[in-house]
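Dock serine; give full complex structure.
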Amino acid sequence: MPVKTVNDIRTSFLDFFASHKHLVLPSASLLPAQDPTLLFTTAGMVPFKDYFSGVRTPPSRRIATVQKCLRTTDLESVGRTKRHLSFFEMLGNFSFGDYFKKKAIEFAWQYATEFLPFPPERIWISVFEEDDEAFEIWHKHIGIPKERIVRLGRADNFWGPAGESGACGPCSELYLDRGEEFGTDAANRAPGGGGERFLEFWNLVFNQYDYRQGQYRPLAQTGIDTGAGLERLATLVQNVDSVFDTDELAALRNAAAAVFGVAYEGEAVVPLRVITDHVRALSFAMADGIYPSNESRGYVLRRILRRAMLFGRRLGQSEPKLYQLCHSVANIYGKFYPELGRSTEFISQYIREEENRFLRTLGAGAERLEQLLADLVDRKQKVVPGKEAFILYDTFGFPLELTIELAEAENLRVDVAGFNAEMEKQRERGRAAWKQALDLPLEKSLRSEFTGYHTLTDRGKIVALLQGQTQTETLSEKSEGLLFVVTDRTPFYAEGGGQLGDTGFLRTASGSARVIDCRRHNDAWVHLVSGIEGSLRVGEEVELSVERERRQALAHHHSATHLLNAALHKVLGNHIRQSGSLVHPDYLRFDFTHPKALTPEELVAVEETVNNAIQQKLPVATLELPKAEAEKRGALMTFGEKYGEIVRVVEMGDFSKEFCGGTHVQNTGEIGFFIIEKESSPGAGNRRIEAYAGRAAVNALQKRLEAAKTLLAQSSLKQPLRSEFQKELELLESEEELPHRRWRKLLVLEDRIAAAEQAARKEKLKAEKAALASGIEPLVTELLAQKKQLPSGTVLASLVAENRSIAELKSALDRVREREPKALFCLFAPNGSETIFVLGTTQSYCSERNFRLSELLKKFPQDLAVAGGGKAELVQGKFQAEPQQFLHHLSGMV
Ligand code: SER
């Protein structure tokens, strides 16, 4: 039988399922249309999420596809292993309320054994540990011996959801046993062991649940979602070493080798694999309209492209080359994916331009990084400073993840928190510098239209550029200082009403830049930019895009601020007036007039009221009205703000009405959660609340839980108390209750842990003291009883104490000195052939009797081998003689 090609597998799979009444659909786009929480289509089921959840009705209850997928979570592994790919194709058959486990298993078995075909006795199965039903179907109905069915846990055999919510359920996987030559150790005895012998080739997911906001709810109707990675499957069918040796990828790999003028062997293997995978991923993504850029999805593509170029550098790349391979991708894949052919030329030119852009800084950046890594390794350092990673990012265009990957290859870690802090610092520096340079030389007539209430991306024209205080026609990568871009239209929110300005990106035909802040200057919107690549010119068309996640976080906090304002009115009374507000992506700060601190009960009531308003999912409406009319509607005004004749009013159901120019959620439900961090006073008559909303609230809770766990781990608490607290913490970690309630409970728990810890410490200290005291007291009494006056008039007391440590001797001496300041004390503890001693008195007795103990020590005869030292009134050490000999010499000296 001739070896099946990748395309044979595609077509036989679709034909098989078509013959079983499945509607065959073409692959959906890599850009998931319905799910904003997903960057890319990551599985065959993604386009069908709404069919599973019942939100939309499928065109058929049985569907089969070969779906383009892009997963970038393991990007750093691509090229280094035999099976990692970023872009891949997934074969899948789906049932929406039609067949379930039995039929799905039958289909998979039949296709695998009759069409691929794999020998039945080499197929192994895994099922979810609790799924007896699937086990029975495989065993009784299909006839797989029990020994070849393994039960695996949640990590292996529960799938989904894709993104933050949606269908998921237990799954069952098919594995091929490649034979004992791949290993017989523990990792290779059965599927799930992690070895090379058993390779998974098909995953059958029995969709049963809908996961949403931390909860699994049963789906209205069960479904089937199966997925088989085409390239991995082909590796097994064609019995080749790696995915890069399957026919289609091998053709692309060979084209890459030809373009780079190297053979696929030795040092060139990893770079060529990387280039093969990455060029394919780029071509497919761009054919679906996702382009390398500075933001979200586009940034992932840019990272892929730049990673490919870094590996290209290892093959001596110094000019654009990758772009040539787009044509090979189109030739190999164009028949099955016609969209590739339609835009090859454009994609190829775009990649070429991107290559040029990065090549300009790649060399310098790569050298800088190589040098830095070598230095750190030399100095035995483990961490790449965040500041360095930031310079590489900001000045040389190295995506952070690339720096991390290259650092990891040298066993170094990158200080990511430090990197983020640098990013924030840059923003802060820009903002601070801007404050001083507020009076920009811009014509008063300059006007920008703000379109950011309705869109986050827009096109406009550059109408002015500034380098510091000077207007200029162009800005480029070489421009230094504060750089400003003014456009005639912009979706960027300019700082105002407490809400910080947006950040994001802008791009023209010849360049791009990061926007790190935006402010209003009269009627002009001024963008503060950094990291320019290429150049920007006055008069050029510009594409502006706001950083979506940050804007969303700002909207969460701004809308939560309105809810908070309203809740304060409801809980405390209508005397509340807003006196200040800061809307930050990570938190909010709200100042208001109120004569005294809030009681804990009031605080909880405010927090609950806000969360209730969130859960009610109130629609948010914005109205533009004459001021008088807005006042009539009872909208709250901020004290001290100036309002025009036409005002904007933001209403959240009947709950809140406020004058406001900020950007908000469309529905309060989007805010998710609200947590008050603290209440304090910024000054007389005012109170201040700092709080978190949305993801920031969840993060804050998680951070606090982590901190509490660390506190507990480091505490000296004993069992069973420790595990009781641990259990309570784990309970708070599970997502059953709303975050703000868990937060409140956590605060109480923290106090209890701290109190228990304090009590335990006190207890321990007391016990230690008591133990010491009870052990030492007899020594003290006995020593005091030994007091004798020497012929010189000095009072001396000495004692031999068996089995005592030097610490005990010293502690006894301290006590005895306190009780009897006018005597010299000596304690001995024999220790093998040596004797340890402590000798001491008070300072005043030293002066009175005119001796210095530290000096005396030097005067003992050598044969006693006295070693030791200390102060005039206290010495310690050891000697090699009987205590009596020591005393004899001592008595003669004091
Ligand atoms: N969604 C499952 C997976 O990606 C099966 O298609 O593995």
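Observed: The CA atoms of residues 363 and 545 lie 29 Å apart.
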